[in-house]
Amino acid sequence: MSGLGTPSRIASEHSRRLLVGGQLARPAALSVADLRAGWGQHRADVVFECSKNGPQHHSFEGPLLRDVVGDARPSFDAARRKDRSRFLLAVTGGDGHHAVLSWAEIDTDFGDSPVLLATVMDGRALDLEGSQLVVPSDRCGARYVSAITGVWVGACTFPGRPPLPLTPSLPFR
Q: Which of 5, 33, 92, 97 would bridge with 9, disulfide CB 3.0–4.6 Å?
C-alpha cells in the first residue's frame, strides 16, 4: 500500500473535506492538503480566553479565509464595496459548532482581519482532524471552529420592506 497508511486512515482523510458553497461561481470540496498546497500559508500566534480552561496559547498556520473564498468567486460585484459588505460567511465544524463572520471583517478594504483556515496547529498537521477556523482578533475562542465541514457564503438580504419604527425618530443632538 502507498504511504497513506491503513484503510481507516484513508477513509478519515477523505471524509475530512470542507465544502465551500453558497452564492459562489466555483463551489469546492477541499481537504487540509488542498488548503496547504493551493494558497499561501500564513502564521498566527494567538492567545484566547477559554471559559473552561483559561488562557490558551497556540500557533496556527494556513491560508487566509478571504483567499480561499475569493477563489471560489462570490457572487458580489468586487468593484462595489457596499455589495461586498452585505455578504456573510457561516462556518460549521464537525461537532456542529457554527460561527458567522461578515465579508467586511476579512476584506482588505474594511476590517482586514487575517482569519485563517488552519492546516497546522502548534507544529502539528491537521490532516486527520480537519482544518480549524482561527480568528486572531477574538479575545475568546468561541469562533474557533474545529474540524470544519463547511463554509457557506451568501448575501444578507432583508425579507421584504424594512419595518416601520414604532415611535417617531428623535433628532440627534
A: 5
The pTM score is 0.82
pLDDT category of residue 73 using cuts at 50, 70 and 90: very high
Contact residues for 153 (Cβ-Cβ < 8 A; gap 6+): 20, 21, 22, 23, 24, 69, 72, 74, 87, 88, 89, 103
**Residues in Cβ contact with 32 at an 8 Å cutoff, skipping those fewer than 6 apart:** 16, 119, 125, 126, 127, 130, 131
CA-only gyration radius of the chain, Å: 19
* Assigned C-alpha cell, 61: 498556520
Q: How far is CA 58 from CA 6, 37, 63, 161, in A?
A: 30, 22, 16, 45
Instruction: Give the cell for residue 23.
Output: 452564492
